[in-house]
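Open question from group meeting: does this chain pack into something compact, or does most of it stay loose? Before anyone orders reagents, we agreed to write out a predicted structure and look at it together. Recording both the input and the output here so the notebook holds the full record.
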Amino acid sequence: MAKRHYIPITADVPGVSDGRRAFLRKVIRTALAAEGVDFPCEIDVLLTDDPGIHAINREMRQVDRATDVLSFPAFDLRPGELPGTEDADPATGLVPLGDMMISLEHAARQAKEYGHSNRRELAYLVVHSVLHLLGYDHLDEGPQKARMREREEAILAQLGISRD
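Structure tokens returned:
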């Protein structure tokens, strides 16, 4: 039996329940499966607040503002392209796909602004980040963005999560 994905979720803010962590892991695993990731991998997740993500954004991207989600892929991939098992860490056997950081504060504000639940907004941000780790981008307003949005909605539909 293949190893499971390793998805450590740390939080530097209070109130992140085991149930929320389990939900986020389910969303990540569903997104990975939908994109054909059938090898054991690792994604590190940090749940933070606006000041926390602002500091990371400023340090890592030289962008001096808070945001909802940051993704730091371990590989330079194109959509549909996956790293190989030869990219696995010899010590763990896991392919490190990268890191994601989510501001729970920002996510809650956006959920209210868009008129849907915090759960839906968090699921969307997690799927969005996984797709970034797998090479998707939305820098243009054309085909790249459309392809990414299509995959996001398809994965959320698999999870039974709609725009509520």
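Observations to bring back to the group:
The chain has one domain: 9-158.
The longest strand covers residues 95-103.
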